[in-house]
Amino acid sequence: MSINQVMVIGAGQMGAGIAQVFAQSGLKVKLNDMNEEALKKGIAGIEKRLQRAVDKGKLTADEQANAKERLTGSTDLNDASDCDLVIEAVVENMDVKTKVFQSLDEITPAHAILATNTSSLPITEIAASTSRPSQVIGMHFMNPVPVMKLVEIIRAIQTSDETYQTIEAMTEKLNKTPVEVNDFPGFAANRILMPMINEAIFALHEGVASVEDIDKVMKLGMNHPMGPLTLADFIGLDTCLYIMEVLHDGFGDSKYRPCPLLRQYVKAGWLGKKSGRGFYSYE
Ligand code: CAA
Ligand code: NAD
């Protein structure tokens, strides 16, 4: 199946990065957000990153102009009516995601593939909310999308081989490396990463060490590029909490219980870098 026109829904940190990578790989992409301000911010971020790449000599002015031309903004989901592939990257909440998928099911052409960038929610349940479950799949990019090579491709039990192969080929076209993962809570990446982040928050909560020292242990002791608390702020503490809840509910095992301090931070609106405050201050 050939893919010419793509839409990415949600112009937050993930959606904007995904749209940028598609535009730079030669695909026409519409970036959609229900919030006009969020859309403007997402597009401004892409333009800034493209300009930085030109300044560093990593992109030519022609490549920059072509990428910008292939990218358009949208606040109307009906703009998906001519899309061959849609990737949803809205908030990590099942009700919100299934509503988006039900609308897309009505709006997009019958051949279109509907993918989700969910970090942890069951793809099988999202697929079942549409009339085309064999064309629904997880396409899980890592943050920051323009830099990270991995894409977890998650098969719902209904996903067809044709859909899988189309998304695998598209991932390679984006110059990313696909891994095939089955539909379990947190898939592979977050089943392994998020308990480590949650444990770092427990260590802070229990007074084992300071924020800075917990991060130093993992950066200098294990050569991680970011300490776990910096990484949690970078991902978004709301997203971290949603993922821990999915692991806890999905496996019914107390080892996945979210740290109370994480819940408290989210309740306070301290969501990390995107809100200006998390374990660190970004003001
Ligand atoms: N967006 C886009 N590009 C970014 C970026 C961002 N937010 N931050 C940094 N970059 C780019 C820079 O422009 C630079 O690119 P060039 O080399 O082309 O100039 C490159 O990344 C390196 O940047 P820096 O030298 O400024 O910084 P660094 O060497 O410290 O690297 C980093 C920054 C790549 C983010 C690194 O700290 C890192 O790898 N951190 C860990 C990231 C990680 O673990 N991601 C996975 C999160 S979990 C997830 O995504 C799954 C989920 O569902 C929650
Ligand atoms: P974000 O909060 O930065 O952005 C979400 C955007 O979606 C916002 O701009 C919001 O206005 C928009 N939105 C919400 N509902 C919408 C709707 N119905 N229609 C159109 N737009 C809508 O979130 P994010 O960090 O970019 O995460 C997005 C998704 O990607 C989540 O499912 C998350 O779990 C997943 N994810 C996040 C990371 C990460 O590190 N943050 C990594 C991989 C996957």
Automatic annotation (TrEMBL):
InterPro entries: 3-OHacyl-CoA_DH, 3-OHacyl-CoA_DH_CS, 3-OHacyl-CoA_DH_NAD-bd, 3HC_DH_C, 6-PGluconate_DH-like_C_sf, 6PGD_dom2, NAD(P)-bd_dom_sf. Transmembrane segments: none annotated. SUPFAM superfamilies: 6-phosphogluconate dehydrogenase C-terminal domain-like, NAD(P)-binding Rossmann-fold domains. One of its GO terms (molecular function) is 3-hydroxybutyryl-CoA dehydrogenase activity. Residues 186-282 form the 3-hydroxyacyl-CoA dehydrogenase C-terminal domain. Keywords: Oxidoreductase. Residues 5-183 form the 3-hydroxyacyl-CoA dehydrogenase NAD binding domain. Pathway: Lipid metabolism; butanoate metabolism. Its EC number is 1.1.1.157. Belongs to the 3-hydroxyacyl-CoA dehydrogenase family. PANTHER family: 3-HYDROXYACYL-COA DEHYDROGENASE FAMILY PROTEIN, 3-HYDROXYBUTYRYL-COA DEHYDROGENASE. This is 3-hydroxybutyryl-CoA dehydrogenase.
